[in-house]
UniProtKB/TrEMBL annotation:
Entry superkingdom: Bacteria
Family annotation (Pfam families): ABC_tran (PF00005)
Sequence ranges assigned to domain ABC transporter in this UniProt record: 25-254
InterPro entries listed in its UniProt record: AAA+_ATPase, ABC_transporter-like_ATP-bd, P-loop_NTPase
Official protein name in the record: ABC transporter related protein
Annotated SUPFAM superfamilies: P-loop containing nucleoside triphosphate hydrolases
Annotated region (Disordered), positions in chain: 1-22
Similarity field: Belongs to the ABC transporter superfamily.
Start-end of Polar residues biased regions: 1-21
Keywords (A to Z) from UniProt: ATP-binding, Nucleotide-binding, Transport
GO molecular function, one term: ATP hydrolysis activity
The species this protein was found in: Planctopirus limnophila (strain ATCC 43296 / DSM 3776 / IFAM 1008 / Mu 290)
Length: 261
């Protein structure tokens, strides 16, 4: 068991929006084809500074594929992704410090401990030793990792592995978080903790969050982007989405038996 100093606040400078006047996250006509199959087709939307946006869709709708294109991990077949105005195809290095990404099944080095993996991640990002140490302490506390800090990741439960992924996304104090199903596989207590964490991060960050859990959307998001079979079928506020029906009913109306409403 390791104990750490009090949580440190996210640095003010790092949480300031950029001055480009552009949305923080922007998908412009994104498509991804695997052979003839369109995993994502002509998806456009944007997330302004400070917004928490839910990214919804049934299994296989293309959420993870879109998120990978937004984060520069996957090249689009057509279209472009921008992060704080930086094109992810041509200017990814400039965007990297601004972006924290929790992939669906994040690449965790199983033989490492949370401490050694996160330290390695920080060094790879070029964080200076004193800053890295304070950020390690911050994410260990914030993601409730102190009890497993020096245990091999291979021995951790799915919930703790997810927290390590979240800690990696937060380590460098990015302005933008792209979180692919952050509560997937978590028990109700862990889900509650992660939701609280996202709510508190929402005060200073721009967040795009994919989830299957509709109550999560109403708990933390103000805006909804919904895709079905690779196509955008809704892009609007949460109140517009649920104006005339329950969330679940609206989700089914938009995704079952038809591509467009
Ligand atoms: N490398 C690949 N080669 C071929 N097809 C792929 C590849 N990656 C994804 N797909 C397909 O693209 C579609 C979209 O997949 P994606 O993982 O983006 O969906 P998703 O909305 O994230 O689904 P889930 O909610 O189940 O995670 C699926 O039909 C998937 O099988």
């Amino acid at each position: 068991m390791v104990t750490f100093a009090e949580n440190q606040p996210v640095s003010k400078a790092a949480s300031q929006p950029t001055t480009t006047g552009r949305p923080m996250i922007e998908a412009r006509g994104l498509s991804k084809f695997y052979g003839q199959f369109a995993a994502v087709r002509d998806v456009s939307f944007s997330v302004p500074v400070g917004q928490v946006c839910a990214f919804l869709g049934p299994n296989g709708a293309g959420k993870s594929t879109t998120m990978k294109m937004l984060t520069g991990y996957l090249a689009p077949t057509e279209g472009s992704a921008f992060l704080a105005g930086h094109c992810m195809e041509t200017d990814r290095l400039a965007a990297a410090p601004l972006l924290g990404y929790l992939p669906e099944n994040g690449p965790l080095y199983l033989e490492m401990t949370p401490e050694s993996m996160l330290r390695f991640a920080g060094q790879t990002r070029g964080m200076v030793a004193s800053l890295l140490q304070s950020r390690l302490e911050y994410v260990a506390n914030r993601c409730s990792l102190t009890s497993v800090w020096r245990k091999p990741i291979s021995k951790l439960s799915k919930g703790y592995r997810q927290r390590v992924g979240m800690a990696q996304a937060l380590l460098h104090d990015p302005q933008v978080l792209i979180l692919d199903e952050p509560t997937s596989g978590l028990d109700p207590n862990q889900t509650h903790d992660v939701r609280e964490l996202i709510l508190s991060l929402a005060k200073t960050k721009t967040i795009l969050l994919s989830t299957h859990i509709l109550t999560e959307v109403t708990a933390v998001c103000s805006h909804v982007v919904l895709i079905n079979e690779g196509r955008l079928v809704f892009n609007g506020s949460l109140s517009e989405m649920v104006a005339n029906a329950e969330m679940e009913t609206r989700f089914r109306q938009l995704t079952v038996g038809g591509r467009t409403p």
